[in-house]
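Please check both lines for our workbook:

___
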Amino acid sequence: MCAYEWRTGATGRVILYDEDVTSKTETEWKKLNTLQHYNVPDGAGLSLVPKQSSIYNFSILSDKNEKSHKYETLNISKYTSSSPTFSRAGSPLNNDMHENGLRYWHLVKHHDSDMQKEGERVNKLVSEIYLTRLLATKGTLQKFVDDLFETIFSTAHRGSALPLAIKYMFDFLDDQAQLHGITDPEVVHTWKSNSLPLRFWVNLIKNPNFVFDIHKSNIVDSCLSVVAQTFMDSCSTSDHRLGKDSPSSKLLYAKDIPEYRKWVDRYYRDIRDMSPISDQDMNAMLAEESRLHTTEFNTNCALHELYTYAVKYNEQLTVTLEEDEFSQKQRLAFKLEQVHNIMSAE
């Protein structure tokens, strides 16, 4: 164990302890000694000495200040048994220590009701300390994040052609908005974002282990959460107000999100301007996909799940199928009734 020794010049030497007989106590609170407590001036000389060898008398401190503490000539060994050494890098800075019914504090008293706020303050301080490193890491990864977002939100710069299902689904959402008299473009934008980017891509970005046989460490998970949150903010139509109390993960891509939003808008616009997909082409695509994956899925199980859903919402489905023009042509309501009859007979 070591202690700090203050070389006071002509007046001698003083060992600085966290706690001694001169420490101030108020009700249940006992303040740990500080440099101010010992009246150590700026520019004073301090040395680190072994505690066990620091057994000599204090010299009387200089009395230049009327409020300064006067230390009589006392033997250090008198303090040693009652003066535990506390680590200033440990709990006194962040938590109150309890001993002999007393609560010790260093610079600020941490009341129980303030513990949560203190934790938030410490976390924010750590975030600010590492902000420079965050920015450097972001600069290293920026190209990869840009390439990922551009590939997802592009109909041209991608490894393969845009899947027909995406065009067919987005056209369906546009038709539904027109059918129900919805003219607010942000509503359709939100539908499309919730149907594909936020339901599918966010899961893959956040959980690459869904696709690849890899281990995702906690650090990687935290980094991917920032990218996923940026992705979600890019698909949003509402403006997020950021301030000094906003988390660093939000501030990190704050300047990039407006550009990413332009990519999302362009992506939805380009798909809308593409030639529509006919029902025949869509059915042919689905049939081909089914053929390619015939042995990979249990179709009976999938059909049973669909039938369970149809039974639960039979009335609503029947009414909708009877009113829909396409369903009327295909006589889907009658076919659904036939399925119910067959399953009931079995």
User: Anything to note?
Assistant: The chain has a mean pLDDT of 79. The beta strands are 2-7, 13-16, 25-26, 29-31, 45-50, 97-99, 102-105. The first strand starts at residue 2 and ends at 7.
